[in-house]
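Before relying on records like the one below, remember that each one covers exactly one chain. Contacts with other chains, cofactors or solvent are not represented anywhere in the record.
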Amino acid sequence: SQRRNMMDFRQEGPKIAAVIRGKKSPATSMSYHEDGEHLFVTSEADCRLLMIDCNRGVSEKPAIKFEKDGVRIVQSTHHNQSLLYTGSGRERNQSSGEKHAINYHSIHDNKILRQFRGHSETINNISMCPVDDTFLTSSADRTVRLWDLRQAGSLALMEMPKGGNGMTIDPNGCPIAAFDSTGLVFGITAPMEAQAGHIIHLYDARNYGSGAFSEMKLESKILLNAIQTTFPSMQPMEASDLCGAQWKSMTFNKSGKQILITTDTGIVVMVDGYDSNKVTNIFLSKGVNGGPNGNQAAVACFSSDDQTVLVGNENGTISCYDSLDGSLLRTLEGHVGKISCVASNPKYAQIASACT
């Protein structure tokens, strides 16, 4: 690979450079290190973590086994031999804090350097700040916590964002938190009551105690209209079901002008970073028959140059869409099962994907 991250999906498109085989169970999470040299991949069912050399296309070391705690979500840190991961919470003798702890793990020493405890339910996301050692976690306990790798206790605890301007938060909904590419801003999203939509609140990472500086929302009626406009042949009931999807992830592009949202019903939504009621693009994760993959959560990411959105499909393909006009540029083939993860290398013209 050349030391660049521009990828042209209009011409030849990327080719398969390496195939790294794991066990029978699918990958559940993957995270590139910021230098682009390594990729960390976890399999929850196998309790295994692989560290992959991105230049040679091989697993650099034997897989690390997490027999006791299991492993589910992985997030790289600024150190290329250390990472954050969450366990599967399956150990019966563990307390709630132990089950839902975030572990700071050294690959070199194969040991936990620090545990971060505080969440009481399953953690659904870890987001590392790109400029310092702080990171965010969001959980089914309806809280978001801010941490620092250098100390065990959380720096801040944020309850589910409270709606303003008539926005009422779903009391059973789970938040998602993520830093933007500058590390100066982070966003928190949460569902509104009665499937009325979702809020997105933006915070100054240096002054989060003052509350959100931007309170946006994506109303369900706006999303429904966008779905029906993008897919005019879709049945009204199907469009309505997609509109009520639970959000699974939130990612900012590098400029912060676009936010990419994946859901549990196979729909991927891109909204304006300054006005979330402005839906800029909608993509569908395709099922085996080519229709919407409504039974599975969508996986998607921006390419590292922000020009393309990569969406994994149930039939083992990856759809590559122009991030500006939403047109399909190319379909990548090679997998034999549903795409479970897709990620873009931050430094090289390279993407990684895994299938079931």
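The chain has three helices and 27 strands.
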